[in-house]
Design brief:
Layout: E1 3-8, H1 9-19, H2 33-49, E2 53-57, H3 66-70, H4 83-99, E3 103-104, H5 111-123, E4 128-132, E5 147-150, E6 155-158, H6 162-166, H7 173-180, H8 195-204, H9 208-213, H10 226-235, H11 237-247, H12 259-262, H13 269-279, H14 283-298
Helix pairs in contact: 1-2, 1-4, 2-4, 2-14, 7-8, 7-11, 13-14
């Protein structure tokens, strides 16, 4: 079964920006700290894993996301990216092209949706997916044969591992987040329902729909305060369903991408060298690209 690596690029770009001093700049004084960190990550990934099929998914604009139209407060708690970071996102995508790594972005959909759509579409063609991320939301995409790879922690989780790691089976993750809410994304959920209660509910009921269809049974469940939980669920039913619209990854977005278009190309060493010259990067990344290109040629 062929594998495709689906990379949540924005996490790695943000991590690099906030972990590498922003006084790292090119000859024109433009910051390149996020670009450098992302280049290190992507080059290491290509050299270590040698993926045949690959997609790098970027977030383009939260303001234009369809989720923001549904719920204007969605992610409104986040500060906009600093100007020195916004420009570097564009350069990170240029880097992907030089390294032969297909990249994708959308003004309406998020990187999660790009990854979800590709994973779903390719699964139907016999592919398994490795999700390169630390975002718990993406755990909902994992199916038999797939892998959730927390690259920074060097931890990999298969389908059978997700419940122990995140609290529920992958198919129930969107419902779990709808119940608990997600402070990171400014999704309120159902007040008073924490992770343990949500996990207990979804161990008994397969989905949010089944839970609400059998709400009278909740008060009789064996955990403490079950009667109060039933009342809160009833009072906040609309909020729970709204939250699920936000937490569920769109796996059917319009996206032009065939397996052939996801096949990794060898690095463009000449273009990459000029790109690194403009960024002011030293020889280490160039040597790594040469090794990647040599292995690609020998494959």
């Amino acid at each position: 079964m062929p594998a495709v690596h689906l990379v949540d690029a924005s996490f790695f770009v943000f991590r690099a920006y906030y972990s590498i001093p922003d006084h790292m700049a090119d000859a024109d004084g433009r910051p390149v700290n996020a670009l450098y960190g992302f280049a290190r990550f992507l080059s290491d990934l290509l050299e270590r894993e040698r993926p045949e099929y690959l997609a790098i998914a970027f977030d383009e604009s939260l303001a234009g996301s369809f989720r923001s139209r549904i719920y204007p407060a969605y992610k409104a708690n986040r500060e906009p990216p600093p100007p020195g970071l916004k420009e570097q996102f564009a350069r990170c995508r240029e880097l992907c092209a030089h390294l032969g790594a297909p990249d994708f972005g959308s003004a309406e959909y998020e990187a999660d949706d790009i990854i979800g759509t590709l994973a779903t579409r390719l699964r139907a063609l016999g592919f398994r997916s490795t999700l390169v991320t630390r975002d718990k939301d993406l755990a909902q995409l994992v199916r038999q044969g797939d892998e959730f790879w927390d690259y920074m922690a060097e931890e990999r989780f298969g389908y059978a591992d997700i419940a122990a790691r995140f609290g529920v089976h992958p198919e129930r993750m969107a419902d779990f987040l709808a119940l608990t809410g997600d402070a990171v994304d400014n999704i309120p959920g159902v007040p008073g329902i924490g992770k343990k209660t949500a996990a207990a509910l979804l161990a008994e009921f397969e989905s949010l729909d089944e839970l609400y269809a059998n709400l009278e049974r909740v008060a009789g469940l064996g955990f403490r305060g079950a009667g109060g939980v039933a009342a809160r669920l009833e009072a906040h039913r609309p909020a729970a369903y709204l939250a699920r619209e936000l937490t569920r990854i769109a796996c059917d977005m319009p996206l032009v991408a065939t397996p052939a278009q996801l096949r990794r190309a060898p690095p463009d060493l000449a273009g990459l060298g000029a790109f690194y010259d403009r960024a002011g990067f030293g020889p280490m990344l160039r040597r790594q690209a040469e090794r990647i290109a040599a292995r690609a040629a020998a494959a």
